């Protein structure tokens, strides 16, 4: 019987060509370790990125404005550019309770701006609606489906607490005849966090401001405000003008431009940790329409506004006059208010006469 020849000194696991030198074995072993390590890092990185993304994305609260309002809205005109209703809400509960927001129960839309961005998106105009403006509130539906009848002579900032944000949008649309493309709301406590996250905002005032109500105490000149001071600044009314809501609107407009300018000049790409901190503060404070209620959509919209320079943004107060029945309230001044909204609808230059308000708060 013949036997297959055997190779002396070689086991079945010995590779052809003889045993591997120690150096080659070490290289293969380290090669496998490096590959496994890279795989783990890639998977861990992907998990971390997903965790960060989902955390920021989950911060944003959305409101389905289209569903809430239905078809009772102005037509979207091809010349109207983009129109965004921006509200600053001052709920007196939770984290906002410690921010000198006053003792009034419930929530209010303390600051209201209609941001109009014309076609081309290189300039923008912000229209402030005084919170004490008496308006006609249209018929609206609450989030629980309850219908709320129309009412006249309702103070503008009360609508948010009475019926909800969709009704505020509907009220502004019926006042202006302009369809709001988007809705953005930021609450006071989140606003404070955002300012602190970017390291403060520089503001310049041309007179001393001492307001015991808001707690603001500034001398004339330039100051770097932190989050708490910024809230005091935009809420100040007793330390300037006649102590009315109108007096502080110019401060709110000024601060908005200073804040936008500060964000724009931040080196966000150079500091990922700072970028995340800002994004976390901002998204936690935001409520938007459902079309913007995601990081992706917000980023897309933000990129579309890159050409808008905050320093060239025009800020206008809705022309108002003191109400004849209650001098502590104001109503839209005519024909100025109509001329203002008409110019925005048609994409034409706003007449100087439409920028002047009989009630100045001075």
Word description of this protein:
The chain has 362 residues and is of the alpha+beta class. The longest helix is centred in the N-terminal third of the chain and has 38 residues, at 22-59. α1 packs parallel to α8 (272-285), α5 (188-197) packs across α6 (227-235) and α5 (188-197) packs antiparallel against α8. It contains ten helices and 17 strands. The protein is globular and about 95 Å long.
Describe the structure in brief.
With 362 residues, the protein is of the alpha+beta class.
List the helices and strands and how they pair.
Elements: H1 22-59, E1 61-63, H2 65-69, E2 82-89, E3 109-117, E4 125-128, E5 134-137, E6 140-141, E7 147-148, E8 151-155, H3 159-162, H4 165-176, E9 182-187, H5 188-197, E10 201-205, E11 209-211, E12 216-218, E13 221-225, H6 227-235, H7 245-265, H8 272-285, E14 286-289, H9 295-304, E15 314-317, E16 320-322, E17 330-332, H10 336-346
Parallel strand pairs: 1-14, 2-9, 4-15
Antiparallel strand pairs: 2-3, 3-4, 5-8, 6-7, 9-14, 10-13, 11-12, 16-17
Helix pairs in contact: 1-8, 5-6, 5-8, 6-7
């Amino acid at each position: 019987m013949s036997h297959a020849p055997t190779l002396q000194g070689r086991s079945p696991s010995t590779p052809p060509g003889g045993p591997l030198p120690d150096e080659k074995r070490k290289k293969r072993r380290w090669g496998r370790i490096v590959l496994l390590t890279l795989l783990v890092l890639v998977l861990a990185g992907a998990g971390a990125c997903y965790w960060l993304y989902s955390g920021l994305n989950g911060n944003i609260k959305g409101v389905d404005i289209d569903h809430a309002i239905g078809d009772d809205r102005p037509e979207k005109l091809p010349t109207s550019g983009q129109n965004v209703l921006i509200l600053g809400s001052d709920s007196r509960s939770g984290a906002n309770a410690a921010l000198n927001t006053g003792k009034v129960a419930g929530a209010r839309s303390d600051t209201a701006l209609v941001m109009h961005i014309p076609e081309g998106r290189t300039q923008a105009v912000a229209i402030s609606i005084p919170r004490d403006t008496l308006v006609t509130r249209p018929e609206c539906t609450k989030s629980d489906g309850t219908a709320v009848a129309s009412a006249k002579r309702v103070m503008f900032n009360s609508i948010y607490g009475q019926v909800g944000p969709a009704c505020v949008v509907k009220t502004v649309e019926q006042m202006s005849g302009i369809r709001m493309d988007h809705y953005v709301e930021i609450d006071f406590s989140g606003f404070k966090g955002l300012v602190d996250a970017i390291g403060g905002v520089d503001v310049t005032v041309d007179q001393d401001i001492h307001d015991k109500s808001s707690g603001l105490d500034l001398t004339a000149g330039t100051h770097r405000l932190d989050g708490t001071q910024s809230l005091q600044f935009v809420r100040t009314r007793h330390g300037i003008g006649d102590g009315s809501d109108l007096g502080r609107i110019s401060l709110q407009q000024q601060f908005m431009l200073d804040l936008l300018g500060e964000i724009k000049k931040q080196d966000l790409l150079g500091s990922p940790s700072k970028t995340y901190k800002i994004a976390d503060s901002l998204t936690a404070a935001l409520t938007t329409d459902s079309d913007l209620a995601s990081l992706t959509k917000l980023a897309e919209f933000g990129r579309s506004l890159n050409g808008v320079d905050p320093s060239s943004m025009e800020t206008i107060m809705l022309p108002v006059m003191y109400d004849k029945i209650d001098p502590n309230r104001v109503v839209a001044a005519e024909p100025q208010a109509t001329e203002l909204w008409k110019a925005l609808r048609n994409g034409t230059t706003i007449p100087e006469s439409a920028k002047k308000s009989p009630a100045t708060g001075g």
